[in-house]
Design a protein that fits this description.
Structural class: alpha+beta
Organism: Tetrahymena thermophila (strain SB210)
Protein name: Variant specific surface protein S2, putative
InterPro entries: Furin_repeat (IPR006212), Growth_fac_rcpt_cys_sf (IPR009030)
Shape: elongated
Low-confidence stretches: none
Distance between the termini: 36 Å
Radius of gyration: 24 Å
Length: about 170
Amino acid sequence: MCEECSPGCKNCESDNFCSQCQSGYYIENNICNECLPNCQNCNNKITCELCQSGYHIHEQTNQCVICSQQLGYYISGKYCKQCNVACKECSGPTDLDCTICNQFYFQIDTTTKRCQTCPNNAYLNSSNFKLQYAYQGLKLIFQLKLLLSMQLLVMRKWIHIIQLKIMYTEL
C-alpha cells in the first residue's frame, strides 16, 4: 500500500527518510523542516537563500522582510540593505542616494542631493535645521498614513474572503 511522504517532503523512501524537500523546506538528517517565514529556499533554520515574491533578505537578521516597510533600508537584488549613516531613507548605498537625511546631516548642495554634516567653515543654523526636520517629519507621517491605509484595505479584503468561506461552508 502506498503512503504519503511526511509534510514538506517531495521524494521519500520511507516515513522518516526524505531525499528531497518541497519549496519552503530544508533537509536535515533526512527529515524536511520548514524554512523561516516567507522564505522560499533555505539550507538551514536560520538563513534564507531566496525569499518569496515581494520579500527580501534582511542583511542583518537573514529573515525575509518587506523592505519598503523597513525604515533606513533599500532593496539591492534579493537583499534588504541598510542605508548609509547619513541617510534616514535612501534608494542606494551611498550618501548620494539619500531621499531623507539623518539627524545632523543636510543636503548642503541641492544639485547632488548628498547628505552631509556641516563642513569646518560652516555652522548649523538652527532655524533652517528646524524647518528641514519639520518638513521631513510631515513627509514621514504622510507615508505612514498611506501604508496604514493600504494595510487596512488588505485586511478588509481578507475579512470579506473569510466571510465568503463561512457563508459557503454553512450551505
